[in-house]
């Protein structure tokens, strides 16, 4: 996970500083927000165009923190990120249709019904799992990672 605050700095910064994105992301969001395509989308969805100045302000504050380690600027970006997060999750928290549960059901890991077990028997995943348990599949001695 990328961020503007590094692990070495965590003891000297506010608790939610992990929310802060790299400064370039704020600039990209600002540029995207101001594009013609975005303005058209905003007008179509909301009936008006949105104010993009918050992205520019976050970018400026992020740069202030990056250059001068200004904690007020960092706090400002954190507050802005919290506000965005609160708006994004508003529908989840105000949903009254579903009852939220504190823990998973007691029988969450019970065996599948018989008809589902039969359809699973011939699947590729079941075949490969069986081969691996029997030792027929060798583990690769290398790992390929695409970044």
UniProtKB/TrEMBL annotation:
One of its GO terms (cellular component) is synaptic cleft. Pfam families: PANTS-like (PF11326). Signal peptide: none annotated. InterPro entries: Pants/Emi1-like (IPR021475). It is found in: Synaptic cleft. It comes from the Eukaryota. Belongs to the UPF0545 family. PANTHER family: UPF0545 PROTEIN C22ORF39 (PTHR28052). This is Synaptic plasticity regulator PANTS. It comes from Cherax quadricarinatus (Australian red claw crayfish).
